[in-house]
Design brief:
Blueprint: E1 2-8, E2 11-17, E3 21-26, H1 32-48, H2 59-73, E4 85-89, H3 97-104, E5 108-111, H4 115-139, H5 145-148, H6 154-164, H7 166-169, H8 175-179, H9 181-184, H10 186-191, E6 193-198, E7 201-206, E8 212-214, H11 220-224, H12 226-234, E9 241-245, H13 253-267, E10 272-277, H14 280-291, H15 299-305, E11 319-324, E12 330-332, E13 335-336, E14 339-340, H16 346-368
Parallel strand pairs: 3-10, 3-11, 5-9, 9-10
Antiparallel strand pairs: 1-2, 1-4, 6-7, 7-8, 11-12, 13-14
Length: 369
């Protein structure tokens, strides 16, 4: 599935092809979140309104309808999208567009960068909203409600709705819980905790002390990954797509590399992944996993030494990687047998190494005097 995006937020023009793993790198304020939200909103719209697709006579009609809906996805003024363009192209143009959409549109689940704050303050926000509704109802001043209820972007609203529904979420079991229990416990093992929902409340159990902590008292890294754990354990289906802003949030570099491995393992078990990242550790680990797709003499011993399995191998054809630039464009990162040829971090790494080398040289000269 291919997307062409123009004049949406910081993005002036981008062509994005979804892979089994799609990675967007780039500096701050280059439009990575605009890409994520736009694509999430489209997929969510297609999934929720699949029955209405029969009324569409062409993909052009769908593109126009969704472009007009962008203001709702971002909860923004329509003027901000006056020149916006969002269009989808399907791999097989000869196929009936309705059937092609149903075949290619993955059921999305999103974890925005705001996920820690959402989970921390969701109940308080709901209480304040409920109190406001009661007060306005009593005074029959319902028209004021529109001015006081927060308008949030669709991905943020959906993440809040997920947090509201924990009691129902845990009633189901995903295919991973039955077929790949190690993937379910992956995040818990990585962080040394157990995630639990007790009486509708999030509780963190420390694996060493076996003591429970309420969610708000746990570390930011633990909070950032709770919903991902719940989704994988209870709701995910093969063919779904995880869209995640900055999976590295609050994680130590070692755990950033472990997250990279988890994402690739999800891909190899039938789950699509779309991420934005600032993490050089994640990119470098992706490159390591890409190199494992090559056959070389010491491959088996190398994989055994570093505890890699076949589920950790990232096949080049499964990866689509992009770099968002400050001028509003997005370029494709080439991939060869050594991984991604370029990333947005390469120049920065060269700069910091040059600084370090010059400082070391200057100090050595001083010590030699």
């Amino acid at each position: 599935m291919y997307f062409e995006i123009e004049n949406i937020g910081a993005i002036k023009h981008a062509n994005i092809e979804l892979g089994k793993l799609t990675v967007i790198c780039g500096k701050n304020n280059t439009g990575k979140t605009y890409l994520t939200y736009s694509i999430y909103g489209f997929l969510q719209t297609v999934i929720e309104q699949s029955d209405d697709l029969s009324s569409l006579d062409s993909l052009a009609s769908l593109n126009q309808i969704y472009t007009e809906k962008l203001k709702e996805v971002f909860s923004a003024n329509v003027d901000e999208f006056a020149d916006a363009k969002f269009s989808v192209n399907l791999p097989d143009s000869k196929q009936n567009h309705r059937e092609a959409l149903r075949k290619n549109a993955c059921r999305p689940f999103i974890l925005p960068a705001e996920r820690i704050g959402i989970q921390l303050f969701q109940k308080e926000l709901d209480k304040n909203k409920s109190d406001l509704v009661k007060a306005l109802t009593k005074t029959r001043r319902l028209a004021l409600l529109e001015d006081h209820v927060a308008r949030l972007a669709l991905p943020v609203e959906d993440n809040i709705d997920f947090a509201r529904d924990y009691a129902n979420v845990i009633k189901s079991n995903s295919f991973l819980k039955l077929e790949k229990p190690a993937l379910i416990s992956y995040l818990e093992d990585m962080l040394g905790v157990q995630y639990q929902i007790i009486n509708g409340q999030k509780v963190i159990i420390d694996k060493i002390t076996q003591k429970g902590l309420p969610y708000y008292m746990s570390s930011a890294s633990v909070r950032a990954l709770f919903d991902l754990h719940l989704w994988l354990k209870h709701l995910v289906k093969k063919g779904d797509i995880l869209l995640m802003d900055e999976p590295e949030l609050n994680l130590h570099p070692e755990n950033q590399m472990k997250i990279a491995r988890l994402l690739v393992e999800l891909v190899n078990n039938g789950i699509n992944v779309f991420i934005t990242t600032h993490s050089d550790y994640i990119i470098k680990e992706f490159n390591n996993l890409l190199m494992l797709a090559n056959n070389f003499p010491e491959k088996e011993s190398f994989m055994n030494k570093f505890d890699y399995t076949q589920d950790d191998v990232l096949h080049p054809e499964d990866l689509k990687a992009y770099i968002a630039h400050a001028d509003g464009t997005v370029s494709r990162a080439d991939i060869d047998e050594y991984g991604m040829i370029q990333s947005s971090f390469d120049d920065i790494i060269v700069q910091i190494n040059e600084k370090s080398n010059q400082l070391i040289s200057a100090i050595d000269k001083l010590l030699a005097i």
